[in-house]
Amino acid sequence: MATLSTNIQYLKGVGEKRARLYARLGVATIGDLLEYYPRDYIDFSHPSSIIAAPYDRPCAIRARVASKSSEQRIRKGLSLFKVLVTDGQNDMLITFFNAKYTVSALKEEETYLFYGRVAGRIGRREMASPLVFQDDPDLAFSPVYPLTEGLSSKMIAANVRQALTLAEGLEQDPLPTAVRTAYELCGRREALESIHFPADQKALAKARRRLMFEELFQLNLALGQTKRASQKEAAAPMKPVVMNDFYHLFPFELTKAQKRAISDCLDNLCGTVPMNRLLQGDVGSGKTMVAAACSYFTVQNGYQTAMMAPTEILAVQHYQTWSKLFAGTEISVGLLTGSMGSAAKREVKARLADGRLSIVIGTHALLQDSVVFDRLGLVITDEQHRFGVSQRMALAQKAQAGQYPHVLVMSATPIPRTLAFIIYGDLDLSILDEMPKGRQPVKTYLIDPPKRERAYGFIRRHLDAGEQAYIVCPLVEQGENSPEGLESAVEEAERLARESFSGYAVGMLHGRMKAAEKERVMTDFQSGKLQLLVSTTVIEVGVDVPNATVMLIQNAERFGLSQLHQLRGRVGRGKAESFCILVSAQTDSPRLQAICKTNDGFQVAEEDLKLRGPGDFFGLRQHGLPMMKIAGLLEDMELVEKTRAAAIEVLKTDPDLLLPEHAALREHTNQMLETAGA
Ligand code: ADP
Ligand code: MG
């Protein structure tokens, strides 16, 4: 008999090949499949007549097959079938391409449901390549799944149906009965059935609410437990120190927002409970200075600071900035990244272990077991959205027993309010809502490819004036595996150096280069030896070269809005006026037009959400919460608060989830904490 953990190949029609396709979707077991939720539904509850069908929008039409043409070969590899259907009042001509099997399965005089876009003239409606469904009066909604090539929604639906009838263990509900009753939630089996095959909108809403509740409830339990763990520990005790010497280390005046954030942090650092604070501020708002102030304070108190950055480039850059900043002081700064030579690594680790090193900046390499601190007092993670919750915690575990370090996380990614509440429910928040003085907004323009040469001329004039520029090329999605995209970036650099920018110093930067090579290119760009940097999105995060004033982004339509905003944040960092030029054939794209209109990261994020619409995953994966499967309902703030209350209630009576009725919850929670770093 099959259980939820039975391999997917147990199902009819799932052989090795289909199992491999499923693996690509992260589905290995029957349980995984049941939690592979539809992203949408085709609504068959109100099929349209042919005459009333909306033009060029997908809709369902119930119609009878009147006649079928024979196969017409258009050219090699392309064949066409025409099928005439009628709804009793009007006819419609349906065209199928390369669909021999589908068409031969259609029987004349039988009625089917056709789902597609209606086009053609009023008297002669047409539809091309519709989805075809048996005319089943019980069929109200048909699930549409996120797909991979070779798997159709129909195949997945058939497998899910079988899984629902086969799988044992569906009746076991991880939600305790008390919680289910209190919040009026349906059982798990009912919810799973309805999320895949809802009878109507109401059943769907009920199922979603129940599954959403379960996910958020689990998450809140996990967060509740980690918070408890950190608050049991004592903080590294610190005392106020005079900060004036620090403020004299750099030539500018801090913004009010920076001062406020620093004072929030220093208050926490002097407290008995470890600091757990999120510093959120748009790109360029000066988060690094807040981090530096906290580190200074920590070191003056005799403790060490560790700062973790998501990329090697960023770690190196922070290291250089901080080495310079603290050059005239007693404070020593070290670097630890995966690509350093083993002797250099060993040396840094030794200096950390015996306390000679006050501050270490690095990548994930900091998480290795061999990294041991003498007196770790403060952990900072930069661009937090790149890290999972668990990585943040792993670094914090590095303090010696009984003393939990203070934690500061920094992020430029503006997060919708509901989401921030879920992810950072256990964090305090400081916001940098003010840009350093003299900063000018980046002027952003959208141009179509034929105008590119003129844009190059514009860039040359800025290079001639002693400024620097970036040209960003996209990698095709899943970039690291996409040689073509990479080549195009490399080729682009060579072509530009040869043609439009011959005579200028052009450098190239991409993720596949060796670390030492990347570092050399970055250093050369920072020192001004290189004038133009052609790069992939590796510069997206945090790179800071104030003399760079122009950025041109090729194929801008391939980027997300927030990503474009991050990229654009690489310019406009100095005093000179800065420009961002988006090149795209889609000059009427509302997304691209939106980003030209505002420089405010929060507005960009809002716009992004609005345009992507609900049902999108709100970038949850980015936030290290890959388990949120139906997170599209995050707008439901009330549910978020309810699950939080329910979780607190359960943890009050059973803090370690040891009661038998909480066994499933405990298992899930542990899993969640383990995988949160994905
Ligand atoms: P982000 O918040 O994106 O991490 P950074 O900390 O990298 O921003 O700061 C961006 C740039 O602004 C850096 O060159 C930094 O030295 C400079 N900067 C930071 N604070 C101020 C300030 N108060 N006045 C002027 N320049 C500042
Ligand atoms: Mg930064």
Provide keyphrases for this structure.
678 residues; alpha/beta; OB fold (Dihydrolipoamide Acetyltransferase, E2P); Rossmann fold; 24 strands; binds adenosine-5'-diphosphate; binds magnesium ion
Would you mind describing this structure in some detail?
The protein has 678 residues and is α/β, with parallel strands linked by helices. Among the domains are: 46-139, Nucleic acid-binding proteins (OB fold (Dihydrolipoamide Acetyltransferase, E2P), Beta Barrel); 443-598, P-loop containing nucleotide triphosphate hydrolases (Rossmann fold, 3-Layer(aba) Sandwich), CATH 3.40.50.300. 37% of the residues lie in helices and 19% in strands. It has 22 helices and 24 strands. The strands form 5 sheets. Strands 13-14-12-15-17-11-18 form a 7-stranded parallel β-sheet, sandwiched between helices. Strand 4 and strand 5 form a beta hairpin. Helix 4 packs antiparallel against helix 6, helix 7 (201-232) packs across helix 21 (637-653) and helix 7 crosses helix 22. It is globular. The two termini are 32 Å apart. It binds adenosine-5'-diphosphate and magnesium ion. Adenosine-5'-diphosphate binds next to helix 10.
